[in-house]
Every structure is written in structure tokens, then in C-alpha cells.
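Kindly inspect what follows.
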Amino acid sequence: MVYKVPFFFTIFCALAIAWIGINGQAYVPTCTSALCNSIRSLEWETLTAGFFGLAGGLAVLWATRTQIASQRKAAVDLELLDIDSFISELSKGLTKLIEVTRQASENVQFDDAECAGKANMDIKEAANKIETGLLFEIDKNHRFPASLRRAARYAHENTLLVTSYRFGVTKGKMDYTIVTSTQQGLDEWAQKAFEPLDELKFERCKYSDFLMRR
């Protein structure tokens, strides 16, 4: 943007001067004012060449700045590769986990302890499948700001929180109160499941902006 506006303005000036130089005399054939005389004596070829030369210089600066920014962004993206991969994996895992929890809530029966036990197991397995290796790499990378590492941990802990909601199964019988409260708890968790991930994305963007300005 620094060079974009001056570049196009310079091109406009060059074209305007060329147009005046070529067509201007036709509009002031008999005029003798200072302005008309200036138009007739305008060395438009020299001025146009100068403006086009200036535009060329601005174009080089613009292209160089764009290339530098592109290279810097590539370097920043590489540095944040673990974060981006973690966000991608966590997003996929959360989507699947929410699907599993909702399916479990819909299928569980108050009088079917076996079904409730399976629902508990399905939720636990889905939560445990979410990637943790990248979280370890992020957590030990102290180049990342503490707020970013903390957001990554919290986003992952939020997925494990779902396992604290269990359909009550005791000695082959169902606890009716726990079934209802678990369904409500899972529904509330699902509604807010992506909030910690959104916070992680915000911290990622904030750190990325810092690296780009560095």
C-alpha cells in the first residue's frame, strides 16, 4: 500500500501530461494567455518519460516490498507450523467428538445400562483420539509466548473435559438423575466446545502479527 497509491498516481500523471501534450494545442489555437502558452510549449515527451521512469522505480520498490513480505510470511507460517497443525487436528477432533457425544445422548436409554456404558466408552475413545503429540512440542517451545502455549493447553484440556460427563451405570442399573444431568452437561459442553479453540486462533494471529512486524 505504501507504493501502490504513488505508483498509480504517477502513471495517471504521465498519461494526463501525454494527453495534454498531444491534444492540448487543438483546444487553445488562438488563446494567448499564460496557461495556453504553457500548453503549447509543454515539453510533454520529457515530462511523460520522467513520470514513467518514476513509476518504474516505484514498481520495483513495490515488487521488492511485496516479495520481502511474502518471504517473511512464509517464514512466519513455518515457525507456526506446529500451532497450525494442532489447530487443524483439534478442529477435526472436536467436530467428531461433538458428533459422538450427541449421538450418545440421543441413543442412551434410561433402562439400558449396557447402552449407557457403551456411550461412556464411545465418548472416552473419541476424546482420547485427539492428537496430543503436537501439544507437547508446542508446550516445550519457549519461543512461543506463554499466552499462546497456555491457550493450546486449555483448548486440549477442554476436549478431555467431556469425559467428566458420564451416564450413571451402577451394578447394571441406571441412575436416572445422572442420565438427565449428563445429557444436559454434554449439550452445554458441545455448544461451547469451540470457544477455547477460537481463543487459540486469536493468540496465534496475534503472535503472527508480531512476527510480521518484527
User: Anything to note?
Assistant: The radius of gyration is 33 Å. The mean pLDDT is 85.
